[in-house]
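quick one, 314 residues, struct below
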Amino acid sequence: MPEVTSERLVDLLGERGWHAAVLPIERLTDLRAELEASLPSLDPGVRDVVERNLDPRLEHDAVARGARSLVVVVVPHACARATVSLEGRLRDVPIPTTYCHHGEIQREVADVIAAAVAHAGLWATLARLPEKLVAVGAGLAFYGRNNIAYAEGCGSFCELAVCASDLPPAGDPWTGPRLLARCETCRACQRACPTGAIDADRFLLHGDRCLTLHNESERPFPAWIDPAWHHSLWGCLRCQRCCPEDLTLRGGVAEAAAFDEHETALLLAGVGRDVLAREVGLRGKLGDLGLLAYDDDFLGTALARNLRAALANG
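---
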């Protein structure tokens, strides 16, 4: 096997259809500065998430272990689709990219990188970092006006992963945050967003207005959310489905599963582990969609709530 270098690693990952870049570990300082600078502009619900990403132990532990680089990877991955049967009618309910097999894809990336660098006696491990910020900063993606990351060839339909490693970086491809050129004049996502989360006067999303924030939570929907806005099992696809950058990509489906009347009734009632233990077929289909990684409370409450809301609209 050829010598393991950062350039060779990027090529190996590219052979899998993945886009990759290798950053010097010192870029952790820049990532922290970017996050800290964004805090005053963030809505409270989003600020809590960002502050959790500011854990100083990450930087300290990576450096203490001898990490020399961050390997950033973009994996093209389309949305999924659940087809449910209700009162004799089949209904397709989309599931955005990042909810299906997210952890599995990240672990696969980490395993591939670890195996590649092990030939040179090096190590690599998954790093819990704000992946969008790292991928955009590494020059692998651009931000859209909707604050979603867009990568060449797959638009916004991709998974992101970051690994820390002691592989020496060959250079520094860091570009810093970049906005898609089209977004300077396009307002498609702003017009399509039903909650007004995308603001023409600022780049940062109004996170507390984003439908995704609320249907990811197990709490009841706020009263200001119009039931007609719901359309997917989790998250929201309105700003992606209208985006010109995704025009040729939005019809793709990575995983699909069909649920019969009995299984649909179980999903609508809430799926606890007791149900999954006896309903082997249902468990298998949820597994096919990569949804079994979610905890019992989410499967038993938020999934049912979101599905009911989506099915109520047509």
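Residues 102-118 form the longest helix (17 residues).
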